[in-house]
């Protein structure tokens, strides 16, 4: 399990999907879950950076875990997720400041993501954010929190990471597309079949 956290954490950092001490990862283990320590470097995770805590009840270890622990807990309690990635992809964050949903124009993003909702929360963590994010993740695999970052789910950390990577690439394409201007030749074939995830 440590090797999986290390591999995905390192890939997230090297892909510029978060800053040195930003973001967090977790994996559900029955009625408990492993989550990265508060302030851990995703690119340099050690065994001490993985904190195990309760899914239904908090224990003393929760004091060491990420400040996003309540959000992860709510996602596990309200969805079928077994793994969660929270990252701060910069292009996606920039677009989230202007959009209520991110609709990819590239082929891969359109096929894999369809669209990504952008939600707002006054607080960067806590019960309000946990409620809004876990509600949207019942229907989507990834959601953007305006100006903050994304939360993605999967059966494995690798799957949750895939959605984050795909989102950032699609946001970069969308940024270049808007910057270049002009008229698009073809736009999302069968887009009418993608009303949501």
Would you write up a description of this structure?
- By secondary structure, this protein is an alpha+beta fold.
- The protein has a single domain (2-181), classed as Class II aldolase/adducin N-terminal domain (L-fuculose-1-phosphate Aldolase, 3-Layer(aba) Sandwich).
- 36% of the residues lie in helices and 19% in strands.
- The chain is built from 6 helices and 8 strands.
- It has helices at residues 2-14, 69-78, 90-96, 107-113, 127-136, 157-180, and strands at 24-29, 32-36, 50-54, 83-87, 101-102, 116-119, 142-145, 149-154.
- An 8-stranded mixed β-sheet has the order 3-2-1-4-8-7-6-5, with helices on both faces.
- A hairpin with a 2-residue loop joins strand 1 and strand 2 (32-36).
- The longest helix is centred in the C-terminal third of the chain and has 24 residues, at 157-180.
- The model has no long low-confidence stretch (mean pLDDT 90).
**Helical segment count:** 6
Strand order of the largest sheet: 3-2-1-4-8-7-6-5
Secondary-structure class:
alpha+beta
The beta-strand count equals 8
CATH topology description? L-fuculose-1-phosphate Aldolase
Number of domains: 1
Helix content: 25-40%
Oligomer: single chain
**How does CATH name the architecture?**
3-Layer(aba) Sandwich
CATH superfamily annotation:
Class II aldolase/adducin N-terminal domain
């Amino acid at each position: 399990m440590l090797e999986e956290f290390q591999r995905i954490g390192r890939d997230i950092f090297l892909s510029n999907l978060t800053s040195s001490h930003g973001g967090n990862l977790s994996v559900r283990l029955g009625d408990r879950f492993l989550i990265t320590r508060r302030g851990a470097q995703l690119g340099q995770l050690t065994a001490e950076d993985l904190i195990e805590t309760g899914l239904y009840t908090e224990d003393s270890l929760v004091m060491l875990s990420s400040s996003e622990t309540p959000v992860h807990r709510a996602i596990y309690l309200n969805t079928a997720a077994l793994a969660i990635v929270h990252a701060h992809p910069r292009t996606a964050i920039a677009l989230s400041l202007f959009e209520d949903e991110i609709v990819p124009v590239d082929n891969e993003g359109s096929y894999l993501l369809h669209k990504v909702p952008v939600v707002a929360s006054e607080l960067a963590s806590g019960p309000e954010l946990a409620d809004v994010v876990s509600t949207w993740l019942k229907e989507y695999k990834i959601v953007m929190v305006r100006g903050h970052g994304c939360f993605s789910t999967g059966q494995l950390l690798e799957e949750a990471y895939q959605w984050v990577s795909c989102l950032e690439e699609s946001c970069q394409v969308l940024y270049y597309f808007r910057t270049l201007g002009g008229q698009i030749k073809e736009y999302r074939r069968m887009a009418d079949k993608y009303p949501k995830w």
